[in-house]
Amino acid sequence: MPVYKNPYFLLPVLLFWVNQYLERIERVYLPFIHGYWDDLLAMPVILGLTLQFYQWIHPLKAQLVFTIVQVLAGWLYVSLIFEYLLPRWSDRYIADLWDVCCYLVGSVYFYFLINRKEN
To answer: Which residues cross the membrane (predicted)?
Structure first.
């Protein structure tokens, strides 16, 4: 099954968009959800889109999956950019260790539920 049809991928995408709609259009602010929900959903969405793109262009197609090292590299990359570098360059960003934990949980979710070879 392609990544974009995987219900474990579609759920974080849907939840992300619902959260953005509530925050930006309806102006509904729930502190915990606003603070961590996007961070929890980021890695399944980012890695899922990346995997789908690679499956489209790679000769292995749907048989291509990411290794644990590649998933952890993605987690480390996003964590470094959003929780270390951007807060140092701009006052608009705040470093938060809980965000790094959310990225890790999302990466584990991706690895076990979305990162699957087509049967």
So the answer is: 40-57, 64-85, 97-114
Specify whether the CB–CB gap between 115 and 8 falls below 8 A: no
pTM summary value: 0.92
For residues 36 and 42, give the distance between their C-alpha atoms in angstroms, rounded to a whole number: 10
Query: Which is nearest to 26 in space by CA: 38, 14, 34?
Result: 34
CA Rg, the chain, in Å?
15
d(CA 60, CA 17): 31
60: helix, strand or coil: coil
Query: Which residues are CB-neighbours of 32 under 8 A, at least 6 positions away?
Result: none
- Whose tokens are 């959260």? That residue is 19
Buried b / exposed e along 81-102 (16+ C-beta atoms within 10 A): ebbeeeeeeeeeeeeeeebbeb
Total residues found in the chain within this entry: 119
